[in-house]
Protein: Thermopsin
Organism: mine drainage metagenome
Amino acid sequence: TELHPSEEPPEFLAGAGDTEFGYGVVLSFQAIRSSTTWAFEGGNWINVTSVVGSVPVYTVVPAMAYDSTQGYTVFLQQLRASYTTNQSNQTWVLHDPLRLNLSTTQSVADVGQSLTYEISVTGGMGPYSVTVGSLPPGCTVPPNRNGSMEVACTLPQPGTFLFNVSATDQLGTALSVELPLTVSPALAVSASASPNPTTVGVPVALAALVSGGSPPVQSRWAISPGNGTLNATAGNYTFTSTGAYVATFQATDAAGATRVRTVSVEVYSAIVLEARANRTLVDAGMSIGFTATTTGGLLPLAYSWEFGDGGTATTNVTSHAYLVAGAYNATVWSNDSAASSAVARVSVQVNPALSVTAEANVTRVGLYAPVNFSGHIAGGTGPYTYWWDFGNAGSAYTATAVHAFTETGNQTVSLVVNDSLGASRTSTIEID
């Protein structure tokens, strides 16, 4: 084997120097003072070996990737026949790849909320150049823009905005990232309950008006004391007992904003209604006194009567006369100011109206001759009382009577009949 120790080691220029871990690298070689065959060996990096031809002098080696972050020595050897006569080497330093991170706690927000963006630059070769491009209104960039910084924001107006930041290292690697931000008007709510105050058993309409906020907005009602809930913005809730309650409405939007409104609700006892009549058995045409009595409810109260024969009234105390005999139901409704209602009824029996006819067996008679009188009754409600009035000649108190006149001339005889309900009818007959 022939050695040539006097020959100088080959020199080479490589088109890679400081670079970043994980990136493909294109190696370019220029062997100086030699036109012989050169071999390129990648030392500890994935055992890559590539032969650089003797011609031309300038050769490009395909891309190769490093397997870890460390320093590597690149050898270039001059090969002659079956032995190596000279070699040269360079050491290349690897760096982690440049990384740029932009983060914040939320991508949606409401006007008036505060949030912070965090910017961090790692890897590559520092120092870094960090540039903030666009950013939402209300954000303040610190003057010292190094590898890590925080940008504080208090958002003054709604809209859709971009936060853009770019970073460049000393190797010339540049990265840029951006985050969108949607700012909604501030969340606002109002709440109401109707009717309020109310009464037991009456549905209360709970309603809330929600404006602004970042959608979706979650809302619910809670009733206390008790465990009543309503998982909606509006709906009906029925209280089952009296007392003072608090209805609480809460809305929370996607930006984490929460608004709470409370409504105090007073609940009174429900209406209890009773209907009475001063008499439940009458003759047709007689007046009946009706009274509706209530407890509970929320003043003022309203009343409505229907007597069953087409007659009506709108006061709690009233009167009515039935003109046709029969059985009737007088019905009364009462409503309070919270729309609570109750109904009651009273039954009435109506007999035909009392009528009386006085009769005599003769209408012309002589002195001292007896006359037979009788009264015929229809309708009314027995028992009955009778009173025959014969003028100055006397009277009788039975259904039939016998009387003799002792004076000459025309005589008027009257029959008055009263029934057990106080109805009174009179009938007269002339006797010559």
